[in-house]
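#struct-queue
[09:14] JT: dropping the first one here, sequence first, then the structure tokens:
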Amino acid sequence: MTIARPDWTLREEAHRERADALTAAHRERATRAEKHPVWDFLFTYYSYKPAHLRRWHPGAGVELADAPERRDWRWYSPGRSPGSVVPDAATFGAEKTELAALIERMLRRTASRPGQFGCFGLHEWAMVYRADEPRHAVPLRLGQAGTDAVVENHELRCTHFDAFRFFTPEAVPRNRTPLSRDDQPLFEQPGCLHAGMDLYKWATKLGPLIPGELLLDSFELARDIRLLDMQAAPYDLSAWDVAPVRIETTEGKAEYVRRQRGFADRGAALRTALLNAWLGDGAREAA
């Protein structure tokens, strides 16, 4: 597929406008050196700056006509016609062999499993369980003793290593499944909020192989999931107008699971779209 320059520059401009709208509040806060306990995570944990987010790419194998300015961009190769370029999945795979294999394995194995919906966001509670010092400069809704009691009255069912690794030492043995970095592809599952947010991470790491529109779709999913993640956390975020989802109650659990299932559905569609955009219909099965 080849996109003529007038067409792809229109898509590029539309992408920039959408990206700027999505990051406007964060960029405004940054001018005042103002921190936000919910939204900063999207730009610190994932380390992808607003300037990177606004750069549009067509996706692997899609040729841009008359695009000499992109000739030296990373993971672009010359196209079939003079002055054209195309994001090259083979070049990426050769340069980033281990990363490419990991991303494909994570996407495919996660997609192959049923979602689990019984964690109730308790990973955030486990990160402050019996903590000597607060993890963040934000008060706990139920205080330390109340927070500890919620953990002790539930089974921890975290399946995501990058959440589990922040558990306090006292919380680690309470998790139903021991987790490690090497075993991460074995336990990742599509009901996990962080697995959904990480679709944005994988999209950023694939760079020009992912269409810009799909990158922003994954960012929007990560943004929406992040809000629920913090609403269900033990923190009192009322100063930032964040209403809690009280997962320590029956009603809160029901709301959490309802929204979690919706995110799992959105994540499933994005997971498929990422694989198709990157590897196409002839992609090999993950080992």
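[09:21] JT: and here's the second one, same format:
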Amino acid sequence: MATPDKPTLAEIRAWPATIGVPDAAKALGVSKSHMHALIKRGESPVRTLSFGARHRVVTADLIRLLEAA
């Protein structure tokens, strides 16, 4: 069962094709700042799309990662 802050896998499957870093961080159980640092270093465990200084996380990659855990 998910905590109030952490979405369930079923909820994540209903998300749009890309999501913001804060939602991805919640799903992974890490802070926004840690997720941003991973993206900046090119070490994100999921695929991200960059739009200038903004980033979007590919939901399908997030789902695959969580299913494998």
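[09:30] RK: nice, looked through the second one.
[09:31] RK: The first strand starts at residue 18 and ends at 20.
[09:31] JT: good to know. The two ends are 15 Å apart (CA to CA).
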